[in-house]
Design a protein that fits this description.
The complex is a heterodimer of chains A (141) and B (126).
Chain A: E1 4-5, E2 11-15, H1 18-34, H2 39-59, E3 65-74, E4 77-86, H3 94-97, H4 111-118, E5 121-126, E6 132-139
Antiparallel strand pairs in A: 1-3, 2-3, 3-4, 4-6, 5-6
Chain B: E1 8-11, E2 14-20, H1 25-42, E3 46-53, H2 59-74, E4 78-82, H3 86-95, E5 104-105, H4 108-121
Helix pairs in contact in B: 1-2
Classes of the chains: A alpha+beta (141), B alpha/beta (126).
């Protein structure tokens, strides 16, 4: 099923410092409210985005990446899509990275698996040395 | 952006801190440090950490809150997290943050009552 962009302007945020995480949360909240997500779903997608933004600060080369936040539409429903991209070392084993408690930096290891549970859709594209792209979507009910 | 300082209030032998707005990681770590130091300095027997003003608690914030509660326990005192918003609670459970062992209460008033029971009966109070 094709997912289309709406006419709303996409927002692109550079993530390179902790303060940017707050901007990511604010922009996700604004988009989630615009498409009419309920409070719980807003909270889930913002929290998922916060985890993925922190992953960029923790793992990406130069602790740098971007997020693109868009409003999308499919089957008559609106959604928020956030695409997190970095030029980092990539994830050698995506299945392992999606396992609860797996962490290479002594964190709780909930970032990726937690973000997946909080989103309606999540896709990860990564290979060693070629960066990582994580796309999450939350649909209005 | 958030150079916010959250005041720690003292009510008798209880400390109260109210967290609000958007917390960045550095702010959370500063709060952890100040709370542990303040409990040690004042000899407070209980601490209420009010998170009702937080609309987002991600795994980092949750981990630091859990850690500061553990620190306060090591200092021989008790800490209760109060006012977790329903949407935040649902999100934390789905995120998978282990917080089940924390003492929590719906609001500050019930938190004060729980602290009294903890002082009187220790960890079997709830």
């Amino acid at each position: 099923m094709a997912t289309e962009l709406t006419d709303a302007e996409a927002v692109v945020i550079t993530i390179s410092a902790e303060a940017d995480m707050i901007l990511v949360r604010q922009m996700l909240r604004a988009a989630a409210q615009r498409i009419g997500l309920g409070l719980v779903d807003q909270t889930k997608i913002i929290t998922a985005g916060s985890e993925l933004a922190r992953n960029i600060l923790t793992y990406a080369t130069g602790s740098r990446g971007t997020v693109r936040i868009e409003e999308v539409r499919a089957r008559g429903r609106k959604g928020v899509r956030a695409t997190f991209t970095d030029e980092g070392p990539g994830i050698p084993d995506i299945e392992q990275a999606l396992t609860d408690g797996f962490s290479t930096n002594r964190s709780l290891g909930l970032g990726l698996p937690g973000a997946r549970r909080l989103s309606d859709e999540m896709t990860i594209t990564s290979a060693p040395g070629s960066g990582t792209t994580v796309v999450i979507v939350k649909w209005a009910r | 952006m958030t150079a916010e300082v959250f005041p720690i209030m003292r009510i008798g032998d209880t400390l109260l801190i109210s967290l609000q707005g958007e917390l960045d990681d550095a702010t959370v770590l500063r709060i952890e440090d100040r709370l542990a130091n303040e409990v040690a300095r004042t000899g407070a027997t209980g601490t209420l950490i009010d998170v009702s003003g937080l609309t987002i608690v991600d795994s980092f914030i949750a981990r630091v809150l859990t850690r500061v509660v553990g620190m306060i326990r090591l200092l021989g005192s008790h800490a209760v997290i109060v006012g977790i918003q329903p949407a935040v609670a649902i999100t934390l459970v789905e995120l998978g943050v282990p917080m089940g062992h924390l003492h929590t209460a719906l609001n500050a008033e019930q938190g004060m009552a729980l602290l009294r029971r903890l002082r009187d009966h220790g960890d079997r109070a709830d």
